[in-house]
Amino acid sequence: MNSENSWAAPYNEYMIVAWMAKNQAGEDSEAPAVKLWNNHYESTTTLDKCVYVDGESNSYPVLSINTKRFTSMFTFIFNYALVHHFSNSSEYMDAMLQAGMADKAWWNDQVFANKQTYEWGTGAGSAFKDDDHTKRAYSADRIFLEGSTDQNPQRIVSPHLLAGFGAVMPTEVRSDLLELYKDTRGQARYEILPGKELLWRYSYIDTDWRATSIEGVDFSCMIFGLASLPQFLGPNFFNTYNDVYAEPSLGLEEY
Questions:
Q1: Domains in the chain, please, with CATH?
Q2: Pairing of strands 196-199, 189-193
Q3: Alpha-carbon distance 127 to 250, whole Å?
Q4: What's the pTM value of the predicted model, to 2 decimals?
Q5: What pLDDT, on a 0 to 100 scale, did the predictor assign at position 130?
């Protein structure tokens, strides 16, 4: 890989890498990693936002890769759980809330027979080949603006992403997950062992499709979100315990 010719938009899951690099650089204000952080990540005001306007003219500005295209929502969950600055910033937590509300609003604007308001969540995970719905694929789905490139052509609902917003939408997340679980259609319910079920992805383009795999890297959003609910570890767990650089004398090996 030629790193000199590679690039990434500032807001995505690579915020984690920027956070690690900034902390490894220590107090050196001239270090490239520190300058990168201060220029792009210290405040949300320096980052691009793509605005979703729902069918009732409500606007949701979402931190994104640019002003015309959204990022996949798992970036908010990962950054919340693993970047101490993110989970301790009122700016970033409000940005996470805006992202969750935009996601639900986008799904509420999708018109399908029997579609319910508790069905939302747009993220990464199992998908299918467009020409053969029995062949496994992988897709990092996104909400998108009307008239732009379709970023979720299979209209896959991701309950794990819905759950991931537990820290900022606790009441709504708990209620919607319970409704998904109780839904008599059972589209979101997967039995992984006898008597052991979890909620996973399903499609509104092919309601008979069932994912053949559950990726831990994506399903982790469910765990992070459930942990953040007040009846479990609570919304202050991650911002309290994800500061792995609290003792700068320790290196990564000690962690």
A1: 9-235 (1.50.10.140)
A2: antiparallel
A3: 41
A4: 0.93
A5: 83
